[in-house]
Amino acid sequence: MADRKRNILGFIHLLSAIALLGLLGGCARPFSYLPSDNYLRTVNKAASRTVPGDSLRVGSYNIYLSKDIDQAIVDLQQNERLAGADILLLQEMDAADTERIAQALGMNSVYWPSFRWLRDKTFGNAVLSPWPISDQYVVALPHANPIIGFKRLGVAADLLIGHRVVRAVNVHLSTFTTPLEKRLEQASTMLDSLAAVEGPVIFAGDFNTLTRSERNKMRRFMLKAGYGQVRMPPGPTASSWLDFMGLELILDHIFYRSLIPVEGGIDRTAEASDHFPIWATFAWSDME
Q1: What is the pTM of this model?
Q2: Residue 155's beta-bridge partner residues?
Q3: Range list of β-strands (E), the chain
Q4: Predicted confidence band at 157 (pLDDT cuts at 50, 70, 90)?
Q5: Domains, in order of start, for the chain
């Protein structure tokens, strides 16, 4: 059984390399952005919410290369937990498409690209919220992609939710072409940036945990760092040609600190991406 799994993973790595090279082969050479570059885009309008409720609602959605934004908006709007989220984290986004979704949902947004994969398309993370954004951050993650050479970035925002400041952290760790140990180092780098943060923290996104072993190691790593994990319903958070192999893809997770988890869910009716949006509801730990 172990040999079969290793063979499957080896085959996956090979196909991933071929697919990525095919995606980028007809494009200009990918350009990686750095935190020192002035590409951070923040849209901070008047807050659409002024009185916080007794809970915090969070969603995360990897929208494949931000290609089908019209359908993504439908996906988000038809799920009240996502449309009404206090924090919405999006991965694989372009700046213009981030603003389209933010406008459709009446939210503020922070966006930073990790790299450019087409002349007019970037690939990055976005934090959306109907609450005011008081600050925003970008952190360079270690370990370049072994095939193309670009690096990932983590994006975070401080949200003013009533009298509380909530740090929302959006990560999209490298794919399984990068060993898990290096992906854990990427998560560790982002966690280091939170060392001085007080109060509630959401740490979520696409962790690219391909196997149960990887998921367990990631959970234990985050638990040791002081973060709990939201329990999701059984089943995958993404779908692909791997489904027929019986390899269940649970790639997306929501971790938290200084909050009380109430429930979590996966919207498998969504159609815009190979990932499904996930969501969670929290109670405030300070009970104020």
Answers
A1: 0.89
A2: 138, 170
A3: 31-32, 41-43, 55-62, 87-93, 108-118, 121-129, 133-140, 153-161, 164-172, 201-206, 228-229, 252-257, 259-266, 278-284
A4: very high
A5: 31-284 (3.60.10.10)
